[in-house]
Amino acid sequence: MSLAAGHPVIAIPGPSPLPDRVARAAHRASPDIYGEDLALLNQQVMAQLKRLAGTTAHVAPYIGNGHAAWEASAANLFEPGDRALILTSGHFGQSWAQTLAAMGVVVEVLDFGLQPADPDRLAERLRADPEASIKAVMLCQIDTASAAMADIPAMRAAMGDHPALLVVDAIASLGCAPMMMDDWGVDVLIAASQKGLMCMPGTCFVWFSEKARARGRTTLTSPYWDWHPRAEGDALWRYWGGTPPVQHVFALDEALRMILDEEGLFAVWARHAALARAVWAAVDAWGEGDSGIRLPIRDPAARAASVTAIAIPGAEALRSWTAAHCGVTLGIGLGATDPANALRVAHMGHCNAAMVLGTLGVMEAGLTALGIPHGKGALEAAARVIAEPA
Ligand SMILES: *Cc1c(COP(=O)(O)O)cnc(C)c1O
């Protein structure tokens, strides 16, 4: 017998659950792409994207995923041979560094293992660069593999007077954890549609400050990736470098309305924080009695709001069990120290307490079914967080 019938729960950190409303908004025939209605809708979406990021500066939309946004931003920021300092906290920072190196950027890595970046080490490195050879400081706000969350204002403060641009990959954090691009002094921000933005994969965005724009075009700035026409938007096709992804624009409009106008950004951040704490409480309880179940990131302030990485002996078997028996798909232990004994639980985007408590309950059942030792009281602990989230 399987208990997996019913609505599947896909608790992987992207693509995140797609709200029915967003899917319905996209479910339509293509309208006239030269008509005024679509142009106005697109402008509205661009304005909402700026609200989401906390900026009055510029945003350039692209058809593509997060990897496309990495290339889009790099193509506008660097000449081949320019030096970038990237602070890595796991798989995504490392793979971003490889993309930059493949584009001809001289990449210097400050490696923090699977822990969040340390502002003191950044400050120390920049003090040793009085001639300002480093053009950009780059990091993931949340590295989705390690689930480490960086303190972006602390990074900006650590940069002091150094003129490098601050470039933040917020693909796994925008719409989940606080981001105030202008207030925090972020020059370039990167996100994609399929995580906190609650849309299907397929579009991505690069927000950029006036200081970043003022650098102008480089030899890497090919016509498709050039952010200037996309941000200036004097015609609909210019925003998207050709035919707009019409159905995606409708989906984005619906999702951004849900986040910004209905639930509200502060409430969205608070919901993610509470759901994350419920997961951490369960893991702490499972970890009682030397079970080996634990959160690799000890400091709660350094943990992601959108995804939790967990070390669990037998994680691979547990993942198979929850999917086969209960319809719950957990994230793989991507980039973990011991991937076979690690997994990730996403609580990202369109996610509520029932989904998180259901996922934790199914994990508890799997631990029991597979005879994986675990402490008791995990569900009570999670329920207590949900009962008193503040
Ligand atoms: C998902 C993710 C990426 C890659 O995005 P794709 O859409 O898979 O190309 C990059 N960085 C972070 C932090 C991510 O979470």
UniProtKB/TrEMBL annotation:
Which residues of this UniProt protein bind substrate?
R344
User: Where are the N6-(pyridoxal phosphate)lysine residues found in this chain?
Assistant: K195
Lineage: superkingdom: Bacteria
**GO BP term, example:** glycine biosynthetic process, by transamination of glyoxylate
Homology family: Belongs to the class-V pyridoxal-phosphate-dependent aminotransferase family.
SUPFAM superfamilies, sorted: PLP-dependent transferases
Gene3D superfamilies from the xrefs?
Aspartate Aminotransferase, domain 1, Type I PLP-dependent aspartate aminotransferase-like (Major domain)
| Name of this chain's protein | Alanine--glyoxylate aminotransferase family protein
- Enumerate the Pfam families for this protein: Aminotran_5 (PF00266)
Residue ranges of every copy of the Aminotransferase class V domain listed in the record: 69-316
Cofactor(s), names only, from the UniProt record: pyridoxal 5'-phosphate
Q: Give the molecular function GO annotations.
A: alanine-glyoxylate transaminase activity; L-serine-pyruvate transaminase activity
Which residue windows are coiled coil?
Answer: none
